[in-house]
Amino acid sequence: MAVIEVTEKTFENEVKKADKTVLVDFNAGWCGPCRMLKPVLEQLSEETGNVKFVSVDIDENDEIADEYDVTSIPCLVLVKDGVEIDRHVGFIPKDAIVDFIGDR
Fold this sequence. Notes:
The protein is of the alpha/beta class. It is 35% helix and 28% strand.
């Protein structure tokens, strides 16, 4: 499963109504740490079946970023049953992401 690019039009169905926990990667094309994190998330999305991975470009989807009060990127937000359950701001290595996701 790949990382799904979501927009303000698709966010509700892909994240809030998802039938499993979703890791939302808030990012921007100009953000160096975001670009470093992208291949790590792509790899994890292929290896992890219990979590759905999505990406939100904050420049193109500022309403979602505002709704989740994203003030720094990269920002990883775990959403379960439409509700934020945890977040991490800043670059995080693969093993730490695995720990962050845990068995949710």
